[in-house]
Structure formats: structure tokens, C-alpha cells
Write a structure and sequence with these properties.
The complex is a heterodimer.
Chain A lengths: L3 E4 L2 E2 L2 E2 L2 H16 L3 E7 L2 H4 L10 E6 L6 H12 L4 E5 L2 H14 L2 E6 L1 E5 L2 E8 L4 E7 L4 E5 L15 E4 L11 E8 L12 E5 L6 H14 L3 E4 L1 H5 L20 E5 L5 H4 L7 E6 L12 E4 L2 H16 L1
Parallel strand pairs in A: 1-4, 1-6, 4-5, 5-12, 6-11, 7-11, 14-15, 14-16, 16-17, 17-18
Antiparallel strand pairs in A: 2-3, 8-9, 9-10
Helix pairs in contact in A: 3-4, 5-8
Chain B lengths: L1 E6 L1 E3 L8 E3 L2 E3 L5 E3 L1 H13 L1 E2 L4 E2 L2 E8 L3 H10 L4 E6 L7 H15 L3 E5 L10 H9 L3 E10 L5 E8 L2 E8 L2 E5 L9 E2 L22 H9 L2 E5 L11 E7 L9 E3 L2 H10 L5
Parallel strand pairs in B: 1-8, 1-10, 8-9, 9-16, 10-14, 11-14, 11-15
Antiparallel strand pairs in B: 2-5, 3-4, 6-7, 11-12, 12-13
Helix pairs in contact in B: 2-5, 3-4
The chains are: A alpha/beta, B alpha/beta.
The complex binds flavin-adenine dinucleotide (FAD).
Amino acid sequence: MTDVLVVAELSLGKIRKTTLSAIAFAKTVAEGTSGEFDVLVIGDGAEDAADEVTGFGARKILTAAIEGDYRCEAYAPTVAEVGKEYGVLVACASTYGKDLMPRVAAKLGAGVASDISKVAIEGGELVYTRPMYAGNVIGTLKVTTDVQVVTVRQSEFEPAAESGGSSDTEEVDVVEADVASRVQSLGIEVVQSERPDLSEADVVVSGGRSLKSAENFEKVLEPLVDALGAAMGASRAAVDAGYVPNELQVGQTGKVVAPKLYVAVGISGAIQHLAGMKGSKVIVAINKDKEAPIAQVADYFLVADLFDAVPALTTAVKKAKG
Amino acid sequence: MKILVPIKRVADPANANKVKVSGATVTHDGLEWVMNPFDEWALETALRLTENAADKTRVGEIVIVSIGPKEAVETIREALGKGAERGILVEGTDAELDSHVVAQVLAKIVEKEKPDLVLMGKQSADGDSNVAGTKLAETLDWPILNYVSHIETADDGKTLTIKRELDVGVQTLKVTGPAVLTVSDRILKPGTVKNGVTPASFEYGDLGDLNSRLSNLKNIMAGRKKPLDETTIAALGVEPKRVDSYVGFKLPAGRSGNTTYLATVDELVSKLQTEAKVL
Ligand SMILES: Cc1cc2nc3c(=O)[nH]c(=O)nc-3n(C[C@H](O)[C@H](O)[C@H](O)COP(=O)(O)OP(=O)(O)OC[C@H]3O[C@@H](n4cnc5c(N)ncnc54)[C@H](O)[C@@H]3O)c2cc1C
């Protein structure tokens, strides 16, 4: 019997969808071991946000209100104090989860299974699968401490669906740590977009260095993105060049996506980029070099100059969608 | 300012698709060992924080530490050749190490060296875990700032203004050191590291596809002569007790491998509609 504590992720007082992937993990483990799961909502606006996760079958929703911007130093002591009673603590492997959970693990002397793609239950024991070497090796890992700390790859854990009912809510005491006073947040510039979120979209269109400017991203790529109702992504080279903000980076260092359709426009397909998108269902490459390594993963490869092909494709997609 | 930069050698990440597995081991036959590129970014950042780039003088100290086999000395020497002042090798094998043991070992080194900052890669290009830096910070009861893209130090060298890249956007923070920092890709862009010594008018060139500055023959030779201590996990008083362990490795299932080349947009649209059924 393994009880699981899900650590929810808040942004601007709302639960991020990443949390639903962690809940999906928790359900699998709790059901597979006849245990239960609770959700800890921690941060600014935790009490109001608790309602958002009430219908997912958790035994309890725990809330810990901490004012101000996120800092792991301020959150970790409470998560560890609450979490020490559980078999597994889980969050999504977003920057939030990857920042917070190892600190919690260190407080508890716990082992971490980071950015896992799968969990199996073998003889009551949890066995984790995780991509390593930029997705070129799949490791199988066991954690040997009483409390196990896990972060789950969002693209590999389908968001949990609401199952109805409502969970009881309980407030927990906030534990403070002196070290938090050494880190003061001056603000988070939260980027809000009308487009679907990169990590959650069914279609992703990404552009590379070859787009040559922020203006071309806007004029050439964005119409295609919108015609497809897609999220926009980018290679590191395009982010480094300042064409698009860093939240759009796909790859080993950026976001890992696995949409139904991924369109790589003028992206060579470096190993680190492939790490972030090769789990996509259908991959289309638009590139003028037919030898580009993106061919290793592309199902369809349009050999063309993007500046001709992308506007034409945009028109054709609009027509096809009516 | 004194900065500790932990580095790891990894099998050339640009060829990670040539790595092989057998049972519970990963083999890298034929692959070159290189400094973990994420650590190189941290090293470059540390160099920028401890120099006057305009007159090419060093104004601080960088200590490099690597936990690994004897051969990791070469990787430490490479960092010394780029400008770091001293090196420490802690001998250990992969089988003894997980993020918990690494954090314990680094904490011992920090206690000895008393740096103002520890600058690290956020992950190693092989394990991709993203855990050790944060565990180290908690072990030391220091702040951790992950994914740092900008650093500005105040005159006292203790207060840092930092920007870091989160999934939701960029966070700006004021941090009182000592602290552990891991850096993001963008830290290598010109104008991101300001140490109050290098004149504001100085601009670092774009490194392009390099992960840290190149070294010249003279500096490489100088690096060979810099002090490099060797110790062991046991000598530091750390018990190599892992808290997680790998039971097996396999290669990922490949994609179909069939790439259909198309010459026109119309052909592509028709394939997406009738074959892939995604339009
Ligand atoms: C430690 C580390 C981590 C990294 N992490 C990431 C990561 O997370 N994500 C990531 O993306 N990269 C990452 N990189 C960088 C990666 O190695 C590549 O440098 C980067 O992905 C290249 O971006 P690109 O494909 O846009 O540019 P390029 O490699 O320059 O490719 C441009 C492509 O565009 C094509 N092209 C040019 N003009 C046209 C045109 N007019 N029409 C059609 N095609 C055209 C070219 O044929 C070429 O294939 C990382 C690197 C390191 C060392």
C-alpha cells in the first residue's frame, strides 16, 4: 500500500495543467497498491485554487497559503513536513517540479526519480522508466528510501480526468526556513498567450534559426501556427538569437512535447532538439536540405525553401479546414 | 569572489545516439569523453564573474571539482587551461554515485573551500536528472537558483541580482550569498553576466555553437602546471550509500524510419489529410 502526495503547481493563483499529469501518476500508484492519494496545494492563493482539484478522487486536498512569488526555499519545508508521512511525493517535471522536489528530497534524505516517462508496479515495488542521454537511452530505476520523490514528464502522463465527487479540504501549517529570507523575488514576467500551451497542444509548429528574425516568426510562421490552431515552438538557436522567448524552446534544455502533429520549419534536428519532440505522433519537416538530421525522425519531409513553402502551406491548410 | 565549479566528464553528447547498452550498463565505446556542456556553461559564467575582460586579468578564484575516475583529471585540466586556478579530483566510480552521494561529496568540498558561489550545470547530458545542484544547496542550507540566465553582482559580492528562466516566464530575484546557481543556455549571450569589474562598455562576443571559450596553447600549457589535488570519497568521510539505483537500460524504440520525401505543398497537404489524418 503506497500513499501518494501530489504537489500541485500554481501560477497566478490558478492550478497549472501540469498538476493533472502528476495526479494521473498518483492514481496509477494508489490504485495499483491499494493506497490513496492526497493533493497539496501550496503557494499564493492556495485556498481558492483548491477547488480546481477537488473532483479527481483525492482523499484530501491540503492547502498551505504562502504569499508572494514561488521560491523553493519557502515551499520545501512545508512540503517535506507534510510529505514525510507518504510513500511517494510527486510533481510534474516542469521547471517548478524540478526546482522544488529535489530540495524536498534532500530534506527527507530521499532518492529522486526525475522526469520519468512510466511507472510500473512489480511485486508492490515501484519501478520507474526515464529517458536519459537526450532520449537515447531508457533507464529503469528503483528508489530505495522510505519516501520516494518523483517528477513526471508531462508529455508521457495523460492529464487525469475528473471523476466527480469532491475531496475534503484541510489547511496545513506552513513551516518556515531562515534560508528563504536570502532569496527575494522581484517578480515573474508571466507570458500569457492566446495560443494553446506548448506542452499541451495537439499541434506544434516550431521554427529554427533559418527564420532569421523575430519579424519573420511573426509574419511567416505565426499565420501557419494559427491556421493549424497550434502552439508555437522553436529551436534553441532561434531562442538564443532572440527571435522568440525562451519558454518556446523545445528540446533537452527546453520543453518536451509529444503532440499529434509536429511541424519543424527550418530546423536541422540536432540531437538536443530531437530529445524534445521525437515522441510526437506525426512529424513533418520543412527544410531545404534533404540531408538534415531531422530526416531521422520525420515522417514527411517537404524539401523546400520555407519562405515559399510556409505561406503556401498556410493557404492550403486554411482551405482544407474550410 | 571565489567560485566552486563542479564538472563531470560525459560521453560526447553530440553522438548520444551511438551509445550502447547491455543489461545494467551503458557503454560508450568509440565515443570521446568531453566536459558536460551544461558544466561548460557554468565554467564560462564563473570565468566572466572573476575577470576583468577588458584587460584580461583575473580578479577572483575558480576551483574546479570533479567526482569521477582518474581520467577525469584531463577534463579538470581542460578547465584550468581556460582560466580556472585550481582543481580537485574526488575519485569515484559511476556505480558509487547518485545525486545524493554527489551532493554529500560536494558539500564536504564546499565546507573546506568556503566559496562565495557554487556554479553548476543544471543537468548532466548523460543522466539528464537535474537534481544534484538543488540537493547540494539543501545539504548546505543555501539558496538554490536554477536556470539562471542573467547575473549581476553588487559591490559587496554577496548580493546578486538574478534572472532565471521558468516554464511560465522569467523570474527576477535578489539573492544573498553564498548560494548554488545552475545556469541556462542564455547565460552565454553577450551582456548577461555583470561583475562590476569588467567595464559596462565591454561586450563579450557571441560564442556561437561553442559551450565555453577556446583556450590557446599557452593557456593550455599553463593549465597543466596549475595545482590539482586528488582525494577520495572515503577520505572526505562520505559513505557512498546510494538512494536510487538503475536496474537496467535499453535503447528507445525507434520511429518507423520511413521518411516520405515530398516536393510540393499540395502533396504534403494531401498526405496529412488522407494518410496521416491529422488535418
Ligand atoms: C547542452 C546543449 C543543449 C541543447 N539544448 C537544445 C534544446 O533544448 N533545443 C534545441 O533546439 N537545441 C538545443 N541545443 C542546440 C542544438 O545543438 C542546435 O544547435 C540547435 O537545435 C540548432 O537550431 P536550428 O535547427 O534552428 O539551427 P541550424 O542547426 O542552424 O539549422 C537550420 C536548418 O534550417 C535549414 N534552412 C536554412 N534556411 C532555410 C530555408 N530558407 N528554408 C528551409 N530550410 C532552411 C537548414 O538546412 C538547417 O537544416 C543544445 C545544445 C547543447 C550543446
